[in-house]
Design brief:
Ammonium transporter fold; 15 helices; globular
């Protein structure tokens, strides 16, 4: 055990957990005032429910039998069995860790909490709270756990050659594809396309952006699982990509609409943070700026997907997380640099490595997208047929704050 590495990952764990309240404010500011508590509750509630599920079963599904190149973990760590300070005996996958095993479990838990919470931005204003609770529980077990095993635990996609430093596939493509599936079943908000639905509190959204950006240092640099040069490179890449993406988003927004908006600055920064996530510990130099700029432009242009697909993605989860995750995961195939991280077996195409890694990134992204979409659609459809996925029409008019939680965010 290394005390410096342990101290850094302890801090990174706290930073990533803080991102979920940040996400609550980021999304909460963009909904109408009658739904702000509903949005905050969905995100904060995820911290309670999903942490318990992670300890009971999902950590074992994700990391049991780590390194086996398979599709699903085993149940060796169910109910926190053998999850303590000491590393598991006879588990070669974990032998390079220099932190307590229970800290590794806690750090990964924070990822498992925020990933399903990302979906709430697409379903805002209309999803029944009870259905949401059941959906994210099933999704964590049936979708997140297996995909985390494929990528983070040396499973099928890692064995194939797909790289993902901190969650381009596991977190962002996974959650973005799920969001797309759920809104196909859920349908559009009442009045969508016919009445304005502006954000009610953009200062909340800016506050949430700041918290997310701050926490993302733990999300990406913490994924080195050590206080080392890879973590240092990852934190620099994270900040540069977010900055470049904000500029890219605002430049295109200014050209197309005539204004550079506060919401655009916030959305652009998050798009860059999403795109650099799979690349953070695998690229260096100017690569994060290029990746951020491309992500900012592409994610802004992807906003038109809502109209093209005729879907009500309330807070643009598809454009920012699904498209941003795809952009980052695929661009990693162009910019990956083995001098930054020895885990890069094949250099990116732009560094003379040919197209092998690029192909692996495309395949890994496609498999994750397809699995998450199909599995999420089935879960959502079953819930819709049984208990109902969305609130009643009168409850939607009243707002989620009162209809679901009997509370109001603001005094009348």
């Amino acid at each position: 055990m290394d005390t410096g590495d342990t101290a850094w990952v302890l801090m990174a764990t706290a930073l990533v957990l803080f991102m979920t309240p940040g996400l609550a404010f980021f999304y909460g500011g963009m909904v109408r005032s009658k739904n702000v508590l509903g949005m905050l509750m969905q995100n904060i509630f995820a911290m309670g429910l999903l942490a318990v599920l992670w300890a009971v079963i999902v950590f074992s599904i994700a990391f049991g039998g780590a390194g086996d190149a398979g599709w699903l973990g085993n149940f060796d760590y169910a109910f926190m069995k053998d999850v303590g300070a000491e590393l598991p005996t006879g588990e070669a996958f974990f032998e390079t860790l220099t932190i307590p095993f229970v800290l590794f479990c806690a750090y990964q838990m924070t990822f498992a909490i925020i990933t399903p919470a990302l979906i709430t931005g697409a379903t805002a204003d209309r999803m029944k709270f009870s259905a949401y609770a059941i959906f994210i529980s099933l999704w964590l077990i049936l979708v997140y756990g297996p995909v985390a095993h494929w990528v983070f635990a040396g499973g099928y996609l890692a064995d194939l050659g797909t790289l993902d430093f901190a969650g381009g596939t596991v977190v962002h493509i996974n959650a973005g594809a799920a969001a797309l599936a759920v809104i196909v079943v859920l349908g559009a908000r009442k009045g969508y396309g016919n009445e304005p639905m502006p954000p009610h509190n953009l200062p909340f959204t800016v506050l949430g952006t700041g918290i997310l950006w701050f926490g993302w240092a733990g999300f990406n640099a913490g994924s080195a699982l050590a206080a080392n040069a890879v973590a240092a490179q990852a934190i620099m890449n994270t900040f540069l990509a977010a900055s470049a993406a904000m500029l890219g988003w605002l430049a295109v927004e200014r050209i197309k609409s005539g204004h550079a908006t506060t919401l655009g600055a916030a959305s652009g920064a998050v798009a860059g943070l999403v795109a650099i996530t799979p690349c953070a510990g695998f690229v260096g130099g100017m690569a994060p700026i290029y990746i951020g700029l491309i992500a900012g432009v592409v994610c802004y242009l992807a906003l038109s997907l809502k109209q093209l697909l005729r879907l009500d993605d309330s807070l643009d989860v598809i454009a920012v997380h699904l498209v941003g995750g795809l952009v980052g995961s695929i661009l990693l195939g162009l910019f990956a640099d083995s001098t930054i991280n020895s885990l890069v077996a094949n250099e990116g195409t732009f560094l003379g490595g040919g197209a092998d890694l690029l192909f692996d990134q495309i395949v890994g992204s496609a498999i994750t997208l397809a699995y998450s979409f199909v599995a999420s659609f089935i879960i959502a459809k079953v819930l819709d047929v049984t208990i109902g996925l969305r609130v009643e029409s009168s409850q939607e008019d009243e707002g989620l704050d009162l209809s679901q939680h009997a509370e109001a965010a603001y005094a009348a």
